[in-house]
Amino acid sequence: MIIREKTGLFELLFATKGSVLPRILPRILAVSLLALIVVLIDGWVTSLPHLDAAPFAVFGIALSLFLGFRNNAAYERWWEGRRLWGQLVADMRALARDCRVFLPEDAPRQKVLKLALDFLHLHRINLRRLKARDSTQAWSGEDFSQADHPPCAALNAANVAVAKAAPDGFARKALSERLASIALAQAGCERIAATPLPYVYSLLVFRTTYLYCLLIPFALLEDAAWITPIFVAIIAYVFFGLAEVTEELAHPFGETVNGLPLDAICRTVEISLAPHLDIKAPPALQPQGFYLS
Amino acid sequence: MIIREKTGLFELLFATKGSVLPRILPRILAVSLLALIVVLIDGWVTSLPHLDAAPFAVFGIALSLFLGFRNNAAYERWWEGRRLWGQLVADMRALARDCRVFLPEDAPRQKVLKLALDFLHLHRINLRRLKARDSTQAWSGEDFSQADHPPCAALNAANVAVAKAAPDGFARKALSERLASIALAQAGCERIAATPLPYVYSLLVFRTTYLYCLLIPFALLEDAAWITPIFVAIIAYVFFGLAEVTEELAHPFGETVNGLPLDAICRTVEISLAPHLDIKAPPALQPQGFYLS
Amino acid sequence: MIIREKTGLFELLFATKGSVLPRILPRILAVSLLALIVVLIDGWVTSLPHLDAAPFAVFGIALSLFLGFRNNAAYERWWEGRRLWGQLVADMRALARDCRVFLPEDAPRQKVLKLALDFLHLHRINLRRLKARDSTQAWSGEDFSQADHPPCAALNAANVAVAKAAPDGFARKALSERLASIALAQAGCERIAATPLPYVYSLLVFRTTYLYCLLIPFALLEDAAWITPIFVAIIAYVFFGLAEVTEELAHPFGETVNGLPLDAICRTVEISLAPHLDIKAPPALQPQGFYLS
Amino acid sequence: MIIREKTGLFELLFATKGSVLPRILPRILAVSLLALIVVLIDGWVTSLPHLDAAPFAVFGIALSLFLGFRNNAAYERWWEGRRLWGQLVADMRALARDCRVFLPEDAPRQKVLKLALDFLHLHRINLRRLKARDSTQAWSGEDFSQADHPPCAALNAANVAVAKAAPDGFARKALSERLASIALAQAGCERIAATPLPYVYSLLVFRTTYLYCLLIPFALLEDAAWITPIFVAIIAYVFFGLAEVTEELAHPFGETVNGLPLDAICRTVEISLAPHLDIKAPPALQPQGFYLS
Amino acid sequence: MIIREKTGLFELLFATKGSVLPRILPRILAVSLLALIVVLIDGWVTSLPHLDAAPFAVFGIALSLFLGFRNNAAYERWWEGRRLWGQLVADMRALARDCRVFLPEDAPRQKVLKLALDFLHLHRINLRRLKARDSTQAWSGEDFSQADHPPCAALNAANVAVAKAAPDGFARKALSERLASIALAQAGCERIAATPLPYVYSLLVFRTTYLYCLLIPFALLEDAAWITPIFVAIIAYVFFGLAEVTEELAHPFGETVNGLPLDAICRTVEISLAPHLDIKAPPALQPQGFYLS
């Protein structure tokens, strides 16, 4: 995720970090070139049909409809992903406090928390589809990487530890409710990761955008011949740019420029749980070149 | 559901798998043909009235309104269906963990989980209105297919097993809350399956789309006579395409190209519950030709 | 509610069952007639002022705004009503299971469920403002029709039965939570039934629609004189049609064509509770001429 | 709140009760007069610049954006306020039932309910900022009007009564959960009452509306000179009307024509609680001249 | 937050307090000046190309899409922030009542409440990124400012106090649920504070707005040459104004004119808890020059 303080005019207009411009530039140039060719043919070779701009209005409305919908849906996926991780942060903190209240002994209490931290990292690794186990130290010392579903295996182990350590029904009830809440947030994240936006929307949006950019030069020949390629470039920037942004936001757990900073959130949880584990809290993650992983 | 990694330009423009184009092509050709006939009559037979494009703006606005609303409503149904199944996944995992914490003996614990798995498959079969019992092995060994409402019968059996096995009030309370949460997600799915979008919207959308496609040629005669059929084809593609997509998404449990992958989700639950049943987890379902059932 | 399988083209274009066309036809004809008069006066009597279509754009935008808002609000009321009844279905099933788990004896258990079924029917009767007690057999044998608030009286009786039969605190807690959840869904339904959409929106929408239909002919005189009445008829169909639909959906518990099928939902609950009452389940309600009551 | 059954055409077009027309008439007349002056100057004094209608499109779009957003936000505040009061109704009924289940003696049970009813009225008085204690009889006989926060004081007293009367932990847990749910709905209402929509939106909306109404005559001079004032009046009616409606809905607890009927809701609760207090239920409040307070 | 009663016409049109006009004036003047230069060059130096206004329609649609989305997202962040603080108010009140019900002794009860109040202030300080400890008296007398995460440290201390003072499982369960609810609201606030709207939207919105303002003069040359700078100024006011407002609302915890009044909300909680601490309630905070901090 890009973290920038309120930026000045210059950065807003010319920043490329965090911008989608570099990635969509080839497409913008391609449709602009086509527009230029249309203009040149119309001017020097043979007169092409000049369309009225009015019928394009309905086109623009349809495009807004598609892009607006897709943008909203993608942003909601992104924000729901963030909300679920916020829920995980709150649940992990509450789990630590619940353990303090309900589990009388220190060793099993810390065991539960360490397994929960392992779960969190395994959940992150699972969502990001990281192959190798990354550099994070395993908190509990157990290895879940061979399990069919590593995060579930870690949470199962935490559950078994709770079942062993709980002295009475209240403890069992309170801690199993907490673990169920964590499992719900986990399943929510997996839902977002496993269920992309319906593919058919991508088809509709891209095809309509291309058709629009290819036909619009014929509508501009009359009034704005020489400026047509520039106009097409701007329109392509706006529409391809939005399409690209929504593509990234729709996959909120990816390691992209607009992906959620899962590493930093996991670290936040580690900092919050450090006092409960009687260890020194690690430092918070800082953005590297405006990018927080 | 169609599962495709980020596809190249070529696939986006010409893919037919997952596209609605094949299904709506006849309608697109029909209205294009009508447009062509209008153009030919106007050019060769007798002059037809040329309409101004401006009054069509309000038409386009109304169409966007209808289609935009319908699209949002359909997508929300689809996503709510997915969310309810995500809730089911989380609840099944939490049920397994709760059983581990609250039920001291192995046999009744596994009995509850097997009945819950049967419930899940019967729920899926019920939502998809599959007649015959499909190939899924019955987990519990009991046959609920003759019950008035098979999924409810399976959940009732699980409830009776809980009532028998629970050693104290905490266990009864915790497990009955979990079963109630499952019942809530089940009723939510049945609500979506049993209550389609109001039929009157389909009427309004289709009639308005047809009227629009039949009248728009008269507005294009002036400026874009020869290109009119192409224009009409594009507009028809956009509007009929969106209408078709929303039709599929509004029935999220159907076995269509955009339906939810209920088989795969059930398998995910089986994988998650395998360690609790002391069996080897089955493999995750893979898409067949980009399609995940 | 109208229940139709995916219908063919013919039904979509010419169906009147479930369509609002019959009801709004007089209004459509009236404004079309006015448009015809304007055209005739302009052509044969005296030249009327010809307006430019452009200023009507803002009109159309405002209308879309009003109608779009009203449509969304009405649909949300309808869908929230359905969701609350889905919640009731889930709660009734969960109540039956909770009774099985927490109440040791059969007689008081069935008493609670029968009172809950009576509540459900009284709730339905209350929402639909049916005067006379309808044909539904009273399950519990008690008569609540003289109470100040019949559904609440039935639920109070169920609550008293729970208080008497509950053997311990867990049973009291679990069953009172269930009854509270039912009461919440009940109050939600009553909220929708008692609080219509603000009346002022109806005024704004109808007045703006009429003004628009009366003024639009002057904008069409220039280009589309003879086709003006047809155009006005189409626009009136679209806007009056949407206004009429939203009117029905905004009252989701009415016995209208788009009202919710409360009878069928109550029957579903009866089917679900039959095994718990040791009786044969009644048959599910079927649509009568596509209409499910 | 205005309560009208489905009204006829005549009422819809000419009703003033519940309409915002009377309040915005001066502003409509003012901008129409200005438009008339522009037309007269253009016709008789000196030719004024005639603007093209096209650039106004973006203006209209911006206005729709502002007004649409403000309308949605205001309606959501109104509907959330209603939902919170529906929650209060459900919670009060559930509180009465919980008291019946968990509190064995009659006197403290009725004490809790009476304090809760006092809370409800004090909450209503607090939201409406009524100075003097209104005519409602104090149910509990205690006077909370001198407390720093009267509704909280009443709820604190109910809480103390619960703490005294509860025979065991289950009762304490159940009843304190119920009171917490009431407190949540209360805080929600106070949030809406204390946090208006950001003031800056009012500025943007009003300034943009005025600018639009002042400039639009110059765009209409060409085609619709004589009809310009009427057009401006209609546009002003639509936009000022919507702005006024949203102003009222954004303050849902006010005693305005579109405010929520808090008196009637409080009465509904009193009717629901009467059987638990062994008193005769008071009559439901009826609308006075279509207005329900 | 600006708190103004319904203001008169004059204030609405010319108020600068709470308006964004002063901040965006330089940008408005800059683009107006550019427009003026274009007009002058076109009139006195050389004829510039005159564009048709129609292609700008799609531009305006795209801008509305971007700004409308951003406005909605920012307002939802603002309102969610407010809702979370309302949740905190309700939870603090409920915590005080729960302590009264479940904790038999006065001293530990007040200890818990004082630690909770410290948490609330530290949470506010954390959200607003205030460096120095502000003037608020520390309620509990403990110093958490050196902790890695001060609000969490205060809540941990409250949790320990609960664990010590709770006489039975019911008390532990009830109070730990309350603290978990507080932790959830806290994590929600931190989520909003730590996760800005995706930066790429700022880029898209600002770049598109500037491009639009720079190109629109060419479209107005034909019809509205001399009025072009005024038009551009108005359009810039509308679009830059909205962009600026959304920027502020998207950071709801900042000490800006549209930020949430966290000081006043904390004071409300102190007033609500005063009776439970047996102290005199402090006075409610009042707006200073319409501004409530």
UniProtKB/TrEMBL annotation, chains A, B, C, D, E:
Subcellular location: Cell membrane
Source taxon at top rank: Bacteria
Membrane topology: Multi-pass membrane protein
Listed InterPro entries: YneE/VCCN1/2-like
Entry keyword Transport: yes
Membrane-spanning parts: 20-41, 53-73, 199-220, 226-243
Entry keyword DNA repair: no
Keyword tags: Cell membrane, Ion transport, Membrane, Transmembrane, Transmembrane helix, Transport
A Pfam family hit: Bestrophin_2
Family: Belongs to the anion channel-forming bestrophin (TC 1.A.46) family.
Protein name in UniProt: Bestrophin family ion channel
Organism: Pseudophaeobacter arcticus
Species lineage: Bacteria, Pseudomonadati, Pseudomonadota, Alphaproteobacteria, Rhodobacterales
